[in-house]
Write a structure and sequence with these properties.
It is built from eleven helices and 19 strands. The protein has 431 residues and is of the alpha+beta class. It has two domains: 3-215, 2-Layer Sandwich (PmbA/TldD fold), CATH 3.30.2290.10; 219-431, no CATH class. The strands form three sheets. Strands 3-2-1-4-5-6 form a six-stranded antiparallel β-sheet. It has a six-stranded mixed β-sheet with strand order 10-9-8-11-18-17, with no helix packed on it. A hairpin with a 2-residue loop joins strand 17 (409-412) and strand 18 (415-418).
Length: 431
């Protein structure tokens, strides 16, 4: 569908106040393997075209902005769908806000691996070869899925803004099996996502996850009680989500944020102070972007500075709702490091070192969390005992009252920060 023709149809709608068009084209090259043999391969091409229509009107004597999202496909009666969409917008009574305008300043970010775009099938082969070079010894891959996506995103709106974003996205998922006998097998699932082929580094990850699969055969349930816990690896991907969501415009607008500008995040702090940034320019970051879904430019923002809440993360919508600065939504998480080495965080035992969970997502309102342990270790008297099962639970506000961050930093898909985070007291459920 021609975007300019669609634009003219939207502009001709009677009474329309504002609009935006989002157009995503995606080519996905997919390869599926069973025990390292190709089971199937395909290329899937998709196109998503969405028009968002806004209509200013009055409700109970107050000006408000109605909106409606219209998804369009080839063969649709476009004029009819747009007219119905605008009619539906009059049933919505959101507060007024303005869309971003043209002429804004954007940081330059690189999201496209141009060689992967040009040679997707060659890179499917290369990734498969990389996996085959990982020494697995007594562990075998039962299944593998490889995805290479080539994306182009267009955004235009009624304020004259026009932006385009081109990106590649590489995803590898695999299942490893380790077994002493048919009746005794251990399983480990791994996933790695990257913008660029050079960032996959599958050998290092594969060797580590093969060890996890082997250790799972000997792993025990954890010993229950209250213990220090060190989080690392996959656990870091969601550990800070509570603070990201608490610092958001929706949390303030809907009155469930506990954070107040220029006041401490954690009262009566006994550990190291948390510093947290939104970093949309992180090279290779999965959430790296030059602009958000509304076209607002994104820049690095310090949200929490040494335990003090400094900046709320507002999309243009919530910035106008709250009469605050527009920053865009949270992107890659960047966390300040601490003063102690990662080995030092693990040295004071007995303690638990937890790496992977079935799920670990703190409640964005209360901060309560409970995660079933998939991979971890109990460290005591010089021993490193593999554990799995059981769970760790606590409250984010209580946990980070006495937390310590390693001075070594690590980058993951959407995280840059300490390699390990030690919480001095959390509840472990087990034997």
């Amino acid at each position: 569908m021609d975007l300019r023709h669609l634009q003219s149809l939207i502009e001709d709608l009677p009474g329309i106040s504002a609009w935006e068009i989002r157009h995503l084209r995606k080519k996905s090259y997919q390869r599926y393997l069973v025990f390292d043999q190709i089971e199937s391969q395909r290329m899937v091409e998709t196109e998503k075209l969405v028009a968002v229509l806004y209509k200013e009107h009055e409700f109970q004597g107050q000006k408000c902005l109605g909106e409606s999202t219209v998804s369009l496909s080839e063969g649709d009666p476009v004029g009819e769908k747009l007219a119905l969409g605008l009619e539906m917008a009059t049933l919505v009574t959101n507060p007024l806000f303005n869309l971003p305008e043209k002429g804004l300043s954007y940081d330059r970010v690189q999201l496209l691996d141009s060689e992967v775009r040009e040679l997707p099938y060659s890179y499917l082969d290369r990734i498969q070869e990389d996996l085959g070079e990982i020494p697995l010894e007594k562990v075998k891959r039962s299944s593998t899925e490889i995805f290479i996506e080539d994306q182009v995103f267009y955004l235009i709106n009624s304020n004259g803004l026009e932006q385009v974003e081109e990106a590649t996205d590489l995803l590898v998922e695999f299942v490893l099996l380790a077994g002493k006998a048919p009746s005794l097998e251990g399983e480990t699932q791994g996933m790695k996502q990257a913008r660029f082929y050079k960032d996959l580094r599958l050998k290092e990850m594969g060797e580590k996850y093969a060890r996890y699969a082997g250790e799972s055969l000997e792993a025990r349930l954890p010993r229950g009680g209250s213990f220090p816990v060190v989080f690392s690896e996959e656990a870091l991907d969601t550990l800070f989500n509570y603070y990201c969501l608490q610092s958001s415009g929706p949390a303030r607008f809907q009155n469930w944020s506990h954070l107040k500008i220029n006041l401490p995040v954690i009262p009566d702090l006994r550990g190291e102070a948390l510093s947290l940034y939104s970093n949309p320019g992180l090279p290779g970051g999965i959430k790296t972007r030059a602009f958000d879904d509304l076209g607002l430019p994104l820049h690095r923002v310090q949200v929490i500075e040494e335990n003090v809440f400094r900046q709320r993360m507002n999309s243009k919508r919530y910035a106008d709702y709250l009469l605050e600065e527009a920053t865009g939504d949270f992107s890659n998480r960047e966390v300040g490091n601490g003063t102690r080495s990662f080995p030092d965080l693990l040295a004071e035992g007995p303690c638990y070192h937890l790496l992977r969970f079935s799920t670990f997502e703190p409640n964005p309102i209360t901060g309560a969390f409970s995660g079933e342990i998939r991979t971890g270790y109990f460290l005591t008297k010089g021993q490193k005992i593999p554990i799995k099962g059981g769970s760790v639970s606590g409250s984010m506000q209580e946990a980070f009252r006495e937390a310590f961050f390693s001075r070594e930093k690590i980058q993951r898909e959407a995280y840059l920060g300490p390699e390990g985070v030690r919480i001095e007291k959390l509840d472990i459920a087990g034997t």
